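Incident review: delayed structure delivery

Summary: a single-chain prediction request sat in the queue longer than the usual turnaround. Root cause was a stuck worker, restarted by the on-call engineer. No data loss occurred. The affected request and its eventual output are reproduced below so the record is complete for anyone auditing the incident later.

Affected input:
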Amino acid sequence: MNRSLLIHLGIALVVLVAVGGGYEIWTARLAAVGARIDNVSAAIGAKEAEIARAKTLRAELPTFTKDETLVSTHTVSKSDIITFLNVLEAAGRFVHASVSILSVTPQKTGPHHFLTVSVKIVGTFDAVMRTVGIIENMPYYITTSSLSLGANSTAKKNSWNAGMTLTVGYTPSTTPAQTQP
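Output delivered after worker restart:
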């Protein structure tokens, strides 16, 4: 073989190795960039899903606010406890029974707040039972936890008394919570 042919062969071999090495480096670089593109695409997809969820929640927020307002009309707020207790006492006066508030205790069961209210009702049997019915059917979230009924032996012949323990829905804050998604 001729020396010039060997030089050309050597140069071709060096060029081939250089091109092959460059190709490998370029392929590895493209694979790394592709992986980063996949990661960014996944992050973009997650953000787009989060934005879509936020838009949905933001669109539903007025409905939640209306529902919260409706629910708050059936619970006793911190600022309306005295008014509520006056309404309980007035329920008895309407049917000629005497209603006394014995105790009021705030409670928290899980995320919900309640008031435990102990009430004593005195009057005729009919008046006591009507008062119990009026209290149970008030437009509040009220549950009767206990009820005891008995005739007064020391008072008038036709006098009855009832003891009630009520659990009443309670909103401890004076304003509804506002949340933004």
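Verification: The radius of gyration is 39 Å.
Action items: add queue-age alerting; document worker restart procedure.
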